[in-house]
Write a structure and sequence with these properties.
The protein is mostly helical. The chain has helices at residues 3-26, 33-45, 50-56, 66-74, 96-120, 125-136, 140-151; strands at residues 48-49, 78-82, 90-94. 67% of the residues lie in helices and 8% in strands. It starts with a helix and ends with a helix.
């Protein structure tokens, strides 16, 4: 197996295992990793427009996460308000229950990150990140991630 192929499958396996661990941790809370990402983005940025949220999401392709937002609104985690000046725009923010759950999600993410930090100990993570960004930066997911990094 050539190195590029090995790397591709190692990244895919790591992504799947990380997602599996996150799904298991979120299951008792009744939300998916994509819904958790919405909650955390709204917790970090306060009110966002629907398109603004879409530009920051890495879990979803495209910039209109309407169905994803519908699910968290229906669950009572996110409040959707129409813009007073332009009714075409929606403003999204966390409800008190959404804020509580977003804080729990942050704790779950910290446990996942601690495991990743331990696995990376002694490795050149800057080199890994440089490679990954070289690959993803011109692509939609890379653009979304870079917007989040710029805002952080």
């Amino acid at each position: 197996m050539r190195k590029a192929e090995h790397l591709r499958f190692a990244i895919l396996a790591a992504q799947r295992e990380g997602n599996r661990l996150l799904i298991q941790a979120l299951k008792p809370h009744g939300i998916t990793p994509s819904q958790a990402e919405v909650l955390r983005l709204l917790q970090q940025h306060g009110t966002l427009s629907l398109s603004g949220l879409g530009q920051l999401l890495v879990c979803e392709s495209g910039t209109n996460p309407s169905r994803l937002v519908e699910r968290v609104v229906a669950a009572g985690l996110v409040e959707r308000r129409t813009d007073a000046e332009d009714r075409r725009y929606l403003h999204l923010s966390l409800t008190p229950e959404g804020e509580r759950l977003a804080t729990e999600v942050a704790g779950i993410e910290e446990l996942l990150y601690a495991g990743m930090d331990a696995a990376c100990e002694g490795l050149d993570t800057d080199a890994m990140l440089t490679f990954l960004h070289r690959f993803i930066d011109p692509l939609p997911s890379g653009e979304a991630l870079n917007k989040r990094l710029d805002l952080g």
